[in-house]
Amino acid sequence: MVSVSAVAALVIIDVQKGFDDPVWGKRNNPEAEKVMEDVLRKFRSNGRRIIHVRHDSLNPASLLKSGKPGFEFKPEVAPLEHEPVITKHVNSAFIGTRLESILRAMGDPEVYIMGLTTDHCVSVTARMSGNLGFKTFVIRDACAAHQRFLDGKKISADVVHDINLASISGEFAQIPWSSELEF
Fold first, then answer.
1. In this predicted structure, what is the pLDDT of residue 151?
2. Which of 108, 111, 135, 181 shows the smallest number of beta carbons within 10 Å?
3. Where are the domains of the chain?
4. pLDDT score recorded for residue 170
């Protein structure tokens, strides 16, 4: 079990409608948004800090470009009016944003991360969070990945997800299941 500190922040990364488009390919963990919704409810009801992050692509054709429907948050994790929303243009939620300053103003918070996609913005943000000295957790069943291809070989979404979690486990973050979080 993981006891969530009274000084903890939940960082929700890129849970945007654009990731529902079939252009991304097959995805693992179809229940991720339901798990995210449950985790978010628990953090809110226990008075923990919530920070929403969304990607605004610099590519005008991107599904995740501001002004397009895909830029919008999925309803399961939509921010409340008082919860900060950070917009980023690169994979890391720390680069070019105020995320680090928000966290530093909290003191020394534990950082819990969930969102889309495991192998891109979730993993990169978790690595930076660990490197910046934050005690970091990536909630493994509150993330998802899409299949990838390398040299014509298909790599399943489950493998992409698992390998990316394994590569950050220990050195950068702890990787608990949502059911292991205690408040």
1. 97
2. 108
3. 2-182
4. 97
DSSP state of 79: P
Using CA atoms in the order 69, 117, 31, 156, what is the torsion angle rounded to 10 degrees? 120
Q: Which residues of 52-67 are buried (b: 16+ CB within 10 A; e: fewer)?
A: bbbbebeeeeebbbee
Q: Are 14 and 113 in contact (CB under 8 A)?
A: no
Could you read off the pLDDT of 100-118 as tens digits, one per residue? 999 999 998 999 999 999 9
The residue written with tokens 């079990």 in the block is 1
Task: Give the CATH class of 2-182.
Answer: alpha beta
Q: What is the pLDDT of residues 130-175, one digit of tens each?
A: 999 999 999 999 999 999 999 999 999 999 999 999 999 999 999 9
**Looking at residue 108, what is its pLDDT?**
87
Give whole-number Cα distances, 59 to 66, 68, 102, 128, 160, in Å. Answer: 10, 12, 28, 24, 24
Helix (H, G, I), strand (E, B) or coil at 52: strand
Q: Pick from 126, 132, 135, 134: which is nearest to 165 by CA?
A: 126
